[in-house]
Amino acid sequence: MTGTVPADLGIRGIGVDVVSIARFSRSASQAGFLKHILADEEPRRSLADSAARFAVKEAVLKCLGTGAWQDGTDFPDVVVELSQGPGAGYRRVDVRLQGAAAAIAGRVAVHASVSRSGDRLLATAVLEALVYQSPSVVFSSTAQTL
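RESULT FIELD:
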């Protein structure tokens, strides 16, 4: 086996955002708003889903320390997939970085969660940096320098 192996994991950033669905609804009624914040591949199932995606995007961009529109980042750089759970909740939140956000973040795992209480959505995000080291033993008949 050749390559690199995980040596350590470290927290790179933590972000939190709270969104009012009613306030988001007013913003979403403006022409082009949803097109500006959602990536092309993100479904537009419901207003609450779009608001949840927005909250996660804000939390992730805070993890990066950029916010939106700084250092070339923008909301579509953070792609959020919401898996429906029982009732009105989300079972799983998957995040993929692309564009400027991916370039700034480097090799990270993104962990995110969304909770809802009435009109409010709370999103939390954690960026976990992957730090790699060369393996001390290479199990291969054709060892390569890394």
